[in-house]
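About this split. The held-out portion is used to measure sequence recovery: a designer receives only the C-alpha cells and must propose an amino acid at every position. Recovery is the fraction of positions where the proposal matches the reference. Here is one held-out target exactly as it appears in the evaluation file.
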C-alpha cells in the first residue's frame, strides 16, 4: 500500500480523539456513582466491584489483541475498541443488574486493549520519522478526558440532568469519530525510520529473549513508578507530615499539571534533541533521584516537590517511549510489542494496590522506598537494553 496516499493526520487526529473518550470510560463509573448506584441498587463497594471488571478485560485481551493486530491490521482493532466503548455506554443506560454491569465494565477493558493494540502501532506507522513524539502526545489527550469528565458530571448533577444524556453523547462522539476515521491506513509492516528516512538500520538481529523481555518488564516498572505516587502520595503526606486532607489531595493536581507539561517537553526533546532510547534511562533515573531525596527528607515542601518531580519524570510518557524503542527493535511485531508491554503495564494496577497498603501499615515511607527500587530497576533494565541497542542498531541511521 502506498503510504503517500494515506491521510496520516486524519488517522492520528481520530486516534487522539479516541483517547479522550478512553480516559473518560475508565473513570466514568465513579464520576456518576450516585446515579449508577441507585440504578443498580448497590453502594460504592458494589460499584467498585463493577469497575474492577475494567482491569480484567484489559489484561485478558491485551496480548491477544496485539497478536491479531499484527495479523489483520490496525483499523479493525480501532473500530472494535470504539464498538466496545459504545456497547458499555448504551448498555449501562438500560442495565439494572450488577453482574451485567460488571460484564459491561469488562467491555471497557476489552475496548481499551483493542484500541491500544490498534492505535499505538498505527501512530508509528503514520509518522515513522517522529514515532516518539506521536506516541508521547497520547498522554496529553488522556489528560484532557480526565480533566473534562468531572466538569461534565458536576454540571449534570448541579442541573439535575439525567446522566444517560452524557452516555448517549459519548456514544454519538464515537460514531462521528468512527465515520471520520480515514479508510486507508499505512501498511502494518511500516518500519520506524531514522531522521534521514533510513529503514534498514540493523547491524544484527535483536534477541526477543533478552532485550524484548527487558522491555516488557519495563512496561511494569515504568507504570508502577507513577502508580505508587498517584495513588499513595496524599496518604504519605497525611501520615508522614500531618498534611491536611485538602492540601494532600491538592498534591495530585500539581502532579497532573507537571505530567501534562512533561508530555509536550518530552515530545519536543525526542523530536529534536534525544532519541527515545536515551530517555527511557534518563527519566527513570531522575524519578529515582527524586524518590531517594524524598525518602530521606519527608516534609510538606518536599511532598510538593515530589508531586511535581514525579509528575514530570514518571508520568510524562516513559511507557510510550519504551514502547517506541521496542517497536524500533522489533518492527514486524509492533502489535505483539503493545500487547505484551501493556499487559505488564496493566499488572501494575493489580499488584501495587495489593502490596503497597501492607507496606504503608508498617511505615508510610516504605511506599517511597519501594518506588525508588522500582524506578532503579527501570534504570538497570534500560541500561542493558541500551547496551544491546548499540550492538544491533546503527545509531548513525536513526
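Reference sequence for scoring:
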Amino acid at each position: 500500500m502506498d503510504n503517500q496516499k494515506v491521510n496520516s493526520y486524519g488517522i492520528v487526529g481520530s486516534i487522539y480523539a479516541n483517547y479522550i473518550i478512553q480516559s473518560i470510560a475508565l473513570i466514568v463509573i465513579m464520576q456518576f456513582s450516585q446515579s449508577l448506584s441507585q440504578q443498580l441498587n448497590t453502594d460504592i463497594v458494589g460499584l467498585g466491584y463493577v469497575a474492577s471488571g475494567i482491569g480484567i478485560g484489559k489484561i485478558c485481551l491485551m496480548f491477544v489483541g496485539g497478536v491479531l493486530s499484527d495479523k489483520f491490521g490496525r483499523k479493525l482493532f480501532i473500530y472494535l475498541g470504539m464498538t466496545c466503548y459504545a456497547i458499555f455506554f448504551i448498555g449501562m443506560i438500560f442495565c439494572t443488574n450488577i453482574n451485567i454491569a460488571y460484564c459491561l465494565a469488562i467491555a471497557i477493558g476489552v475496548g481499551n486493549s483493542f484500541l491500544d493494540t490498534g492505535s499505538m502501532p498505527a501512530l508509528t506507522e503514520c509518522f515513522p520519522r517522529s514515532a516518539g513524539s506521536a506516541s508521547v502526545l497520547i498522554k496529553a489527550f488522556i489528560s484532557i478526558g480526565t480533566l473534562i469528565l468531572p466538569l461534565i458530571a458536576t454540571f449534570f448533577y448541579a442541573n439535575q440532568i439525567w446522566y444517560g444524556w452524557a452516555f448517549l453523547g459519548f456514544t454519538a462522539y464515537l460514531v462521528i469519530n468512527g465515520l471520520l476515521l480515514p479508510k486507508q491506513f499505512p501498511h502494518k509492516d511500516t518500519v520506524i525510520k531514522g531522521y534521514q528516512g533510513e529503514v534498514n538500520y540493523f547491524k544484527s538481529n535483536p534477541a526477543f529473549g533478552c532485550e524484548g523481555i527487558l522491555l516488557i518488564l519495563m512496561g511494569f516498572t515504568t507504570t508502577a513508578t507513577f502508580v505508587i505516587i498517584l495513588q499513595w502520595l496524599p496518604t504519605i503526606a497525611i501520615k508522614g507530615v500531618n498534611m491536611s486532607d485538602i492540601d494532600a489531595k491538592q498534591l495530585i493536581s500539581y502532579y497532573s499539571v507537571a505530567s501534562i507539561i512533561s508530555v509536550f517537553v518530552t515530545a519536543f526533546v525526542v523530536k529534536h534533541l534525544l532519541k527515545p532510547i536515551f530517555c527511557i534511562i534518563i527519566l527513570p533515573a531522575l524519578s529515582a533521584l527524586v524518590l531517594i531525596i524524598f525518602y530521606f527528607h519527608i516534609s510538606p515542601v518536599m511532598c510538593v516537590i515530589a508531586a511535581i518531580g514525579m509528575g514530570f519524570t514518571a508520568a510524562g510518557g516513559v511507557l510510550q517511549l519504551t514502547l517506541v524503542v521496542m517497536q524500533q527493535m522489533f518492527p514486524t511485531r509492533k502489535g505483539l510489542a503493545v500487547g505484551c508491554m501493556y499487559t505488564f503495564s496493566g499488572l501494575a494496577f493489580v499488584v501495587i494496590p495489593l502490596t503497597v497498603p501492607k507496606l504503608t501499615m508498617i511505615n508510610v515511607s516504605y511506599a517511597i522506598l519501594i518506588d525508588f527500587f522500582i524506578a532503579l530497576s527501570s534504570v538497570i533494565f534500560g541500561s542493558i537494553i541500551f547496551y544491546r541497542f548499540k550492538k544491533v542498531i546503527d545509531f548513525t541511521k536513526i
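Annotator remark: The radius of gyration is 21 Å.
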